[in-house]
């Protein structure tokens, strides 16, 4: 296992997946023809009976007998295809979205909090650290390894508490530094686990988006812009309701998706990633008792912002996760737009508008040798569906947590106030003032009625699945990019369709007739074209009989289905201007 530097603070582990055969129940060579490899710590126990001499041995009722095999985690035994079949395409998310990533960011937050306390004059028990001590603490972040994470997991086996295990790990590590050893009990000072976790999750999302997701999104949008510009001039028959409609250009239709995706990408980047650091129930209870002279809300805000996050002052035990819901729903919308593109291109390939570059050795069908299937776009579509299913659950579930009564009222007002400043659907200030008065009038009663502020842990287990939705999204983006790289435009097929649909010129003809006062233009074109075979000759004959100025008539006679594309060419050529806004 080796590490490749990704940034100044994160080390990327390069994992080697393995398959370990059990010595107790050896697998026959017909099932697994490779020698035994060094095992990892993860096992899945299948059934209870000892394996037979052949894995396909059947019982008397002709059913396969269950086997007892200890499987080690590998690309073949992973339950999720992200960790198996598709590992090579999503592994760059590992430093951020994995258990390793979560542990790393917890370590970072704990250390940064200790360093922050050393800068608070009122906390004399934690004096300012020397440069050597600061360097030592920073090295615990910079040099954090998978072995360190495994050590924390070993501690967790005893504590049965993942965040406390991080605290104990840091205390053990820092015993060797005399200066830090004096303040070991200030690790995790006045913190609830969620103080650490919510910041860790926020940093995981922030860094995963900035380091992995946004760059791939940008590559995708750039590829669409290039495809649009390269084919800006290529006329294409439009279809509305599946029927021939006014022509466009291939490039302009691709440009639509580039602009739509760029808009959502921009919205995603503008989602404010929030963090809280207000203790067990959001009130700094323990902080105030220990150091009553410290302005703890101000300290918490400074600390959260120092991590590159925005501060959420009104919370219960947990950060409200509203920003996560907004982020995941925005990601779903990006995915929906891409899914729309995948399906359109799939249809264009079916119509023959695109050919696909073949690769030597690849097979499209196990029985039909001629097949070249649009597998990249199909793979993308399928993974976008899986991604959106997971992201939708995250977005719907995370903002809901039991018994957060007291902070919820103030948090609601705070969120509404921010919404009124940023949304186009602005809440009138008169209504905002009425809401504020209502909140304040109810506050005393809630303090009397609710002596505690509680939460549940359903968000904790759900948050561990952030990488699933994001991972399947990344896989889909790469599949679409791969598919775009194989496309070849078949202009002959596009022209063939256009030349068979001269009826699409009914629209410009009846529009010009309207301009020059010809009675019932729509009805006359409807009688000529609706449900009838229309040819170049029949259209020209109709135009010749029109009582309109000669110049207008000549312009109509010059029209063909391939030239009747309006401003489509220019729209496609200038797509990058729209994308960069």
TrEMBL record:
Record-linked InterPro entries: Fumarase/histidase_N, Fumarate_lyase_CS, Fumarate_lyase_fam, Fumarate_lyase_N, L-Aspartase-like, PurB_bact, PurB_C
Chain ranges of the Adenylosuccinate lyase PurB C-terminal domain: 454-565
GO BP terms, alphabetized: IMP biosynthetic process
Transmembrane segments: none
SUPFAM superfamilies on file: L-aspartase-like
Origin: domain of life: Eukaryota
Domain Fumarate lyase N-terminal: 112-385
Protein name in the entry: Adenylosuccinate lyase
UniProt source species: Lupinus angustifolius (Narrow-leaved blue lupine)
